[in-house]
Amino acid sequence: MRTPAETAPNRPTAATGDAVPFRVAVVGAGPSGCYTAQALCKGQPDIEIVVLDSLPTPFGLVRYGIAPDHQGAKAVSRQFERVFAQPGVEFVGNVSVGTDVGFESLLENFHAVVLATGLGADRHLGIDQDPDARVVGAGDLIRLLNSDPDSRLRRRRDGLDSLGTEVVIIGTGNVAVDVARLLAKSDLDFIASDVDDDALRTVAPDPVRTIHILGRCPSHLAKWDTSMVKELAQVVGVHVTVDGAPLLGEPEVSPRTTVDVRFERVPVSIRRHDGRIRVTTHRAGDSHLADHLDADTVITALGFDSSAAQAARFDGLDAPNVFRVGGPATGRLGNLAENRKLAADTVKDILAFLRGREHRPRAGLDGLRGQLPASAVGFEAWRRIDDAEIRRARPDRCRTKFTTRDELLAAAADSAVLPSTPLATTGPSTTQEK
């Protein structure tokens, strides 16, 4: 890592003339954290920023949450890479705040701390549900197909197998459409993507034949973008109906996958039934009229649990120099445009706070070095991971990601096996990366 004090000019204080640059720690290197760092650099060019993440890789949901066949949206990571290339901006990955580095250390060593940790857990249905029923969160499934090393589905003790030939998706947002599209596509439809082929072949050895999408709202209140639904309907071999009516007309040939969208269906229970899963719903406004739908797997696409933002409770969370952005601030995960605006608004508050008072010098990253694990990953080490994934890309894929932390850390060290020396060391430097 570069030494922040060597790479960013100092800002004299009005009272003393001493050089005291603003130092800010951002916890979370996803889109909200990266947009925050970007806006801070624009608003205060001499600022010093350290972006920490528990994963060895930056970019969070850009890398692991955007559908792997939407590479255009993932391209925002190039913009974020330019942020980390600026003097005074550091990425420190594979570091858990609250475990490796105490939150109190961030408060001690930085003038401001920004929580941009996102929301990690799928929201539960909150209905009568058989504990043995096959229910999968849409966020977990997309993370699996994006090669997230921390994917809950990858870590399942009972293993992971095919989702079956018929699935029910509960929810009518863009994530629900993403899941339907990913499960309905053929191999040729994933050309130039970075999908985890092994995971995809496990959960969907063949495109799923029937996909039911259930929404409790009327059709005009669906949260998905119309363009997303049209994209799904335009996949070759896919036929979409909405409340029984074809979305784009009748198919010319027998479809490979039928997507059946039903609105105003309120889920009541999910039970095992004759070796399958039975979803019972009632019509919105009429709880006496029940419908039953049998499938192999139920996938919930209801957003994310806002309580997950408080899963790690740090001392000083309500201190005046602690700010929240993205999921921890709003309780929801917005799209990239929303995250960018929220980050820009938060940065105005941060800079107003910093400029509104005199600050004693803070050590910044240097004050954390004794706490950083040997396997901490800097931005140059991330570039080695990035290069290695592109070089190992399978045919017709833009990259093939590593799926375990050990693989990621070995690539960061430019080694086939994990060494015992610090993994992110980039060569001779005035400071040793730990």
Description:
The longest helix is centred in the last third of the chain and has 20 residues, at 336-355. Mean pLDDT is 87; it is low at 2-18, 308-315 and 417-434. It contains 14 helices and 16 strands. It is an alpha/beta fold and 434 residues long. It is globular and about 65 Å long. It has two domains: 4-120 and 306-412, NAD(P)-binding Rossmann-like Domain (Rossmann fold, 3-Layer(aba) Sandwich); 128-300, 3-Layer(bba) Sandwich (FAD/NAD(P)-binding domain).
**Succession of helices and strands:** HEHEHHHEHEEEHEHHEHEEEEEEEEHHHH
How far the N terminus sits from the C terminus, by CA atoms, comes to 9 Å
Lateral strand order in the biggest sheet: 6-15-7-8-11-9-10
Q: Could you report the average pLDDT, rounded to the nearest whole number?
A: 87
CATH superfamily of the largest domain: NAD(P)-binding Rossmann-like Domain
Strand content: 15-25%
Number of strands: 16
The tally of helices reads: 14
Count of distinct structural domains: 2
Largest sheet: 7 strands, mixed
Global Rg: 24 Å
Low-confidence stretches: 2-18, 308-315, 417-434
How would you describe the shape? globular
Q: Tell me the name of the CATH class of the largest domain.
A: Alpha Beta
